[in-house]
């Protein structure tokens, strides 16, 4: 399993523990939006792009600053303070494990970008996109991919 996938799955587990009962999608598979947001909210993880690494030659290491994204929807799509209430447990979980169990050098969340989005299957729902930055190293670009 690549380092990138390990980090994505660790982030998924971190979010699932922080928000028990929330619908957790994406990360490594189905990233579609649900037709209905449940009573505990929804988080959809997007892997983003690790970009080009910085390379250390001695010892050889490929260093990534990988930006991933969490799309977060409040319980029943309520938004506002209900949406804010989902950020606090995610933030606390990240603060409690900045290395994702030693997989990363450091992870941190960025400022949420709030958007009202309307689709055919989902009523107007207040979603926020939260960037998550993971800094990590591997011994080969193929180990990251």
Biggest sheet details: 7 strands, mixed
Portion of residues within helices: 25-40%
Average residue-wise pLDDT? 88
> How many structurally independent domains?
1
Instruction: Specify the overall morphology.
Output: elongated
CATH architecture: 2-Layer Sandwich
Tell me the structural class. Answer: alpha+beta
- Kindly, what is the distance between the CA atoms of the first and last residues, rounded to a whole number of angstroms? 9 Å
Describe this structure in words.
- By secondary structure, this protein is of the alpha+beta class.
- It has a single domain (3-140), classed as 2-Layer Sandwich (STM4215-like).
- Helix content is 26%, strand content 37%.
- It is built from three helices and seven strands.
- The chain has helices at 3-18, 80-96, 141-144, and strands at 23-26, 42-49, 54-57, 60-73, 106-109, 113-117, 125-138.
- Strands 1, 2, 3, 4, 5, 6 and 7 form a seven-stranded mixed sheet that branches.
- Strand 6 (113-117) and strand 7 form a beta hairpin.
- Helix 1 (3-18) crosses helix 2.
- The radius of gyration is 16 Å and the shape is elongated.
- The model has no long low-confidence stretch (mean pLDDT 88).
